[in-house]
Amino acid sequence: MDLSELIDIAADSKSENDYATVFAALKGRQVYVNVLRDEPIPEAQLRMPIMTIGDGFRVVGLYTSLEAAQALGAAAGILWEDALAMVGKLAEVDGLAVHNGKDSWFAVDKAAAAIVLAQP
Q: Structural domain tally of the chain?
């Protein structure tokens, strides 16, 4: 089963076990984030759009494929673990949203991101 299908299952079931399977599949993988390119800035200072989902939950959107991220504009790759660590440092956001490039996505708040990052 590929990552996209695992995300479909977890997004539908909302099961802790299914999310654990997705997190294990993401370990060590590159995910993609949209970047804003309104002015030339050093790569280390790329800015990302912040989306609001649900009832005001602010997230950085991550995509499991470069094509899905590029459909919305410029994109950059980041390791899953680095994305989890990054979201913990951003005061402007409450978490991240992972989209499979099809119809499914799930959100991870900062506390859950720290727990996932701490898993061996």
A: 1
Cα–Cα distance measured from residue 50 to residue 34, given in angstroms and rounded to the nearest whole number: 10
Percent of the chain at pLDDT exceeding 90:
72
Query: Quick check: 34 and 46 in contact, CB under 8 A?
Result: no
Q: How confident is the model over 63-117, as pLDDT tens digits?
A: 999 988 888 788 889 999 999 999 999 999 999 999 998 889 999 999 999 999 9
Q: What pLDDT, on the 0 to 100 scale, is given for residue 61?
A: 93
Angstrom distance (rounded) from CA 50 to CA 107: 13
Residue 11 has φ and ψ, to the nearest 5°, of -65, -35
Residues 1, 27, 36: CA angle, nearest 5 degrees = 100
Tell me the sheet residues that pair with 105: 99
Residue count (the chain): 120
Which residues span the domain enclosing 24? Answer: 3-118
- Rounded to two decimals, the pTM is 0.87
Q: Residue 61: which region, alpha, beta or left (left: phi > 0; alpha: psi -120 to 50)?
A: beta
Residue 12: which CATH number?
3.40.1350.90
